[in-house]
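step=predict obj=Acyl-CoA dehydrogenase NM domain-like protein n=427
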Amino acid sequence: MAQATVPATDPSVYSAYQDKWSPLPTTSEDWINRAREVAAVLSQDAAQRDQENKSPRAEVALLKHSGLLKLLGPRKYGGGEQPWDVAYKAIREVAKADGSIGMLLGYHLLWSTTANVVGTAEQAERTHELIISNNYFVGGAVNPRDSDLKITSDGDQLVFNGAKFFNTGGVVSDLTVLEGVLEGTDQHIFALVETRQPGIQFAHNWHNIGLRLTESGGVKIDNVRTPWTEALGWDASTKQPRQDVLGVPFASLLLPTIQLVFSNFYLGIAIGALEFAAKYTTSNTRPWPFGGDNKDSATDEFYILERYGNFFAHLRATEALADRAGEKLAALYARYTSNRPTLTAEERGEVAEWIASVKVVTTDVGLRVTNGVFEVTGARATSLKVGLDRFWRDIRTHTLHDPVAYKNRELGRYVLLQELPTPTWYT
């Protein structure tokens, strides 16, 4: 079945950055600065691109030119070999300018390192070499609430059939992570496959209010085959899960890791909204002439100063919390990647609750700030041409991914009962 042709941005518009951003950054601060440089490019026309809603092929090319797709990979294959706390800060910087591209970067970094967490050491090495040496972008057809992607075994191959309602970044990816349940079992399998093949058919139906450039629409999977050796964390000879890989708390770190990806692009979007609104207020917002304490400038009005100060304080506190959680998770990876079975359930649970705290706060503060900035910019700031609305639309869209009320409940049980969260697809 031929794939539909959809409007897409032109990668050639960013071709000059391929040479400009060579070689790769070397230090952690250099990597974060590179993310800021990418954000500066994206900010120039972010509102226009959001409204045009074209498939982000150019934006993915820009990420490739920047080297950010390689940030977490081993140096021996050409990667940056940075820890996750640096990756989170890079995601945040990109999301300040464009929430969609910050989200795509975050998901790529997660999916490109999934083998580190749920795969064998050999699978992790092979995956890194493939992705980094080719500068591949990785999407994911992973949505555990959908149970309609089935896996069957056919000799030395796995066969995927079914669909996923959500599939982030797949349309513009080189590789796609597939996830489903092996027939006759309740066991899930992750595997990376080439995206450009007849059996992967995208619905091109992502027409949501926010994160419009993430290509998060549906996908049909029709007889997609991959060797059993690509089943992450499974023994290809016995066709059984490797208990030394999947049977330890380390494998369940994948879920807190992606939850903190979410929180960091929420935080980046919220900070970006405040910075964008501040520029608008200083240049365009008019003072209110009927308040009885009239000012010559909007930036002298008490309520505007008070709101900006309050938003800034809450975002600064949220950023400190997110950084601390990122450091704690990165420390677990540094300590246990080469000795996975020694990570305890208690250590995993504690870091999961740090990350749950970040999820609650970034959701609450992010929605409050991206909604509240309209109160201090004025009615004219609602113009689509201004583009201030995209920040709220982006956060509102993704914070519905998994209900934050359950994170609050989880934290309540942790505080009152000292109960560690049971690892799930969302915990």
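step=describe
Residues 302-336 form the longest helix (35 residues).
step=end
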